[in-house]
Amino acid sequence: MYQNPPQYAPAPSLYDTPPRRRRRKVVPLPMVAFLGIFALLFFGGSYLVSPEARIHAQPGVAFAELGGRDVVLVPYERQGARGMFQLLTQDMFQVRLAAVDPASDEVLWDTQLSDELIWEASVLGAGRDYAYVATDSGLMILDLSDGSVEVQGEDVPGLDGAYLTSRAAYAYDAEGRRILALTSSGAVRAIELDQTKAVAVDDETASAWADRLSADRPRSTTFEIAGTEAGLLPSSSEQVVLEDVGIGELGSVLFRGPEDGRKIQVSETAFPHARLVIADGTAAGAATGHVLVQHRLSLNDTGLGLSLVSLATGEVTGSLPISSAPEGAVVGPDGTTVVTAGDAVVLARGDGSVVPLEIGASDLFGSA
């Protein structure tokens, strides 16, 4: 039987040359150093010479318990970018929520909620696991441990496509310890604290809350936080009152006494164009034996300030200039009053001090 002869590979030629290996292109060390210095100057230098982003604290503040300590949840606006890195990677307009320990000033977390230019958020309440925030985009439920968004808007079970983009459509029912929500069909539903699902309520609750909740988008969160008279304690009929003294615009002094009885003067200090700061329906600071007063810095100075007055001695125990009038105020479990006033968040403490609470600071990368 015929077989094909075996095939042999041709012998290598003396003129054949092995293939050349491609050499890697190595960037010279001077070029690496130059690029590093350029990046440092471009990003780091621009960060150092740029001002901090503009901060505006929103009024919907609230207290919560986190890790065994009382913290205040502060929604705020941050506008602008510090340095080129933030300009390239961060949103120019942000609404954020910060959790701050007022006893130590430590910021536990600070998370972005929105990149809208005009957008507000109000903290309704918090349990041990979740915080509930009414926003212009609907309800947001945040993990209280780190500020991450658990669920929001149409993804909230039980609200789904019936959710409303109105802060006025959501409220906290302190008696029932739950969040109440109005749907687009006019129904009222409830979310128990530390739950994420909205469920139907009984007819009595629906009737009672139907008029308090609204599908209309409010222009701003409204708080009654200033007046010339206020109660000292919710269960007491005693009041503090600001009354004008002297001739013309010398100012107002503090009096205290029964609502319908004779009042005695608390302090000799006259505060020009003064108003009492009101938190949770009573005089701010009253829980610690003080009264917080908003006033002009002097008769000839239109700048504003906050002063804390001792009800026992009548002395001004602490003062702080502010850039704008207070918009929101809340009292913590230990009596500390937190006031939002434009770019400032102010603490009026039980020891009589009035100090700023720092929020909104960010590092090179824009992290708070």
Automatic annotation (TrEMBL):
<dbReference type="InterPro" id="IPR015943">
    <property type="entry name" value="WD40/YVTN_repeat-like_dom_sf"/>
</dbReference>
<feature type="transmembrane region" description="Helical">
    <location>
        <begin position="29"/>
        <end position="49"/>
    </location>
</feature>
<keyword id="KW-1133">Transmembrane helix</keyword>
<keyword id="KW-0812">Transmembrane</keyword>
<keyword id="KW-0472">Membrane</keyword>
<dbReference type="InterPro" id="IPR011047">
    <property type="entry name" value="Quinoprotein_ADH-like_sf"/>
</dbReference>
<dbReference type="InterPro" id="IPR048161">
    <property type="entry name" value="PA2928-like"/>
</dbReference>
<protein>
    <recommendedName>
        <fullName>PQQ-like domain-containing protein</fullName>
    </recommendedName>
</protein>
